Amino acid sequence: MHIHILGICGTFMGSLAVLAKELGYKVTGSDANVYPPMSTQLQAQGIELLQGYLPENLQPAPDLIIVGNAMKRGIPAVEYMLNQNIPYTSGPQWLAEHILQKRHVLAVAGTHGKTTTSSMLAWVLEAARLNPGFLIGGVPQNFAISARLGDSPYFVIEADEYDSAFFDKRSKFVHYHPRTAILNNLEYDHADIFADLAAIEKQFHHLVRTIPSEGLIVYPAIETALQRVIEMGCWTPTQTTGQGDWQAKLLAADGSSFEVSFHNKPCGTVNWTLTGIHNVNNALACIAAANHIGVNPEVAINALKQFKNAKRRMEKIAEVNGITIYDDFAHHPTAIATTIDGLRKHIGNDQLIAIIEPRSNSMKLGAHRTGLAESVAQADQAIWYAPDNLGWDLAEAVQQSTTPSTVCHTLDAIIEKAMTLATPNTHIVIMSNGGFGGIHQKLAQAFSQ
Predict the structure, then answer these.
(1) Per the annotation, does 115 bind a ligand?
(2) Nearest 5°: phi and psi at 346?
(3) pLDDT > 70: what percent of the chain?
(4) I need a surface site. Which of 2, 25, 114, 407 has the fewest CB within 10 A?
(5) 114 is in an annotated binding site
(6) What number does CATH give the domain 102-304?
């Protein structure tokens, strides 16, 4: 059977392609934006990638087309698919029907931290010799691949609230029917499809409605939006993290060492390479979810000591002449702030420069612009990328920032500015949910000359 995936280089769809190939299907795909790490992973799997959405890419017709949620009516391949009556489905629906239906699904949902937490959880189950299947919206470095079937009852999935396809506007996670669910946090995002926070809360409650009474929901005690979701009706046991059932006592300010306790009973100490209180909270949720399927917290804690975060999550790209460059996926003011906070606590008084591309759909719509100036408060310098087609005034949005800020309209201007600011012992974190024109390597090359 030949499956063709429209939008194959998206993190979810690329992972889906890996699973379909592992099941034995012939898999091809097309996309308008082909860039690492997903393109590299797909090519390594022997999956043919075609550039663009041309009808010719669907000739001869595949047996089934899996349609990514970035696809819209009017795209030539979509119109051809409909006119030729080629069978099609959404990614989440195909996943539910062909892989998840008979598995114990452990889902990680939330505005932030899904990729990191699902990577952690898959690694903990692996360390516990449960050999889980997983699908993660990134490439977890402990596995070096974003998805696999596994050969156990357990399947870990990054559960996104974004819509499923142009013909199915339900959130992806409604299809997954998890038995164990982590709800990490909940803020307003995806302004292109949700009118307000209440609309997202409604989708999260649709997810809650699908979790069985023998399952478990894990969420932070202090998240008021998630508390509202639970109060809409919950038929599943819950455990809370942070100030609730599962707690962490910081032994290092940057979050690189902390003691875990459950109902005030110490479980052990995590010493790891990650930083930031957000990652401490991610770890608590992971330990709780693993515990639900019988993994002793001590086993989970030992596994986390060997955990390597997914690629593009505070990933060290280069260290050149005393200047360290990191790549991070942050694309929401809260994520930007927590990323910078973790790095600041880790590096102390060294100079920290943040380079940020407002690339997500919500960013492009200006939905988060009021929070941007404050998000970089702990950086020494901020460099913002404002391409000509941004559609709103980024300079105006960040002009009140307490951090010296520069708005650039080209990658060359960003590199030039960074080179004037950086000195030995400078840390530069580049934040974008896209390829950012390969600026990471361009900047490293500039500093090496």
Answers:
(1) yes
(2) -80, -40
(3) 97
(4) 2
(5) yes
(6) 3.40.1190.10
User: Does 426 count as an annotated binding residue?
Assistant: no
For 214-245, the pLDDT digits (tens) are 999 999 998 999 999 999 999 999 999 998 89
Q: Which of 284, 304, 313 lies closest to 222, judged by CA?
A: 284
Task: Give the class (CATH, top level) of 315-448.
Answer: alpha beta
Reported as a single tens digit per residue, the pLDDT across 369-379 is 778 888 899 89
Contacts of 410 (CB under 8 A, 6+ apart): none
pTM for this predicted structure: 0.82
Residue-wise pLDDT tens digits, 24-34: 999 999 999 77
Q: What is the dihedral of CA 186, 190, 194, 195, to 10 degrees?
A: 90
DSSP per position, 188-250: ---TTT-SSHHHHHHHHHHHHHTS-TTSEEEEETT-HHHHHHHHT---S-EEEESSSSEEEEE
Query: Is pLDDT at 348 greater than 80 in this prediction?
Result: yes
Ligand-binding annotation for 110, yes or no, is yes
Give the residue carrying structure tokens 């201007």.
413
Question: According to the annotation, is 371 in a ligand binding site?
Answer: no
**Residue 87: is it exposed, middle or buried by C-beta count within 10 angstroms (0-12/13-18/19+)?**
exposed
Chain mean pLDDT for the chain: 91
Could you identify the residue written with the tokens 């649709």?
206
CATH architecture of 2-92: 3-Layer(aba) Sandwich (3.40)
Domain boundaries, the chain: 2-92, 102-304, 315-448
Rounded average pLDDT over 392-420: 88
Distance CA 6, CA 90 (A): 10
